[in-house]
UniProtKB/TrEMBL annotation:
CDD domains: cupin_Yhhw_N. Fe cation binds at residues 58, 60, 103, 105. It comes from the Bacteria. This is Pirin N-terminal domain-containing protein. GO terms for molecular function: metal ion binding. It comes from Winogradskyella jejuensis. Residues 11-121 form the Pirin N-terminal domain. Residues 150-236 form the Quercetin 2,3-dioxygenase C-terminal cupin domain. Its cofactor is Fe cation.
Amino acid sequence: MTTIIHRANSRGFANHGWLQANHSFSFASWYNPEKVHFGALRVLNDDIIAPKMGFGTHPHDNMEIITIPLSGVLKHRDNMGDEWIPVTPGEVQVMSAGTGVQHSEINGSVDEYLSLFQIWIIPSKQNVQPRYDQKRFSVEGRKGKLQTLVSSFDDKDEESLKIHQEARLSRIDLKAKQSFNYRLKSENHGVYVMSISGRISVEEKEIDSRDAVGISKTDGFEITSKTDSELLFIEVPMIEL
């Protein structure tokens, strides 16, 4: 088993006034040659956006983009006909940029900050037809058990959102002293585990809130929660860029 720990305070940070952004991997003006990607996982941004502010219309292509609001309300508009769709905590948004898409994202509240994760995954297929989807997932569905949010179009899981990559994004909420065994889909995959909140132990390594650990070259591992914890798993093929 290979593990790499990324502490929360080692992330790139950008203060734009209206946007407080933490970058797990090299992004925009922040570059760290040791943190460019984890397999097909290219971006994991932990953003806080001020009320009524956001990202104006901008382009993407050939990337699978997943957004997970944690608090507040995100509003999304794109050139595929989606007009200021709200995305709230409990929901997950996916967008296949493919041949090219233009979109805007804003904080839909006039007085509440928006907190979200934005994740970019390198696709297995280039120049696909752009598409958008979102879905709500219950809190009860991840209490003490794995709740799959996103998987490949080839995956048989009918409850998850779909992307063009053999990836799996999932969440679990654990009570203090509770353990969970994660099993990987393939020996060629790795898993990037982000502690949304709480403290956990992974193979005798302690991970605190917003810390992350990348795990590869194994078929599974055990997690034990030291406190009540909320975890995000991003399993991806361990491709080279």
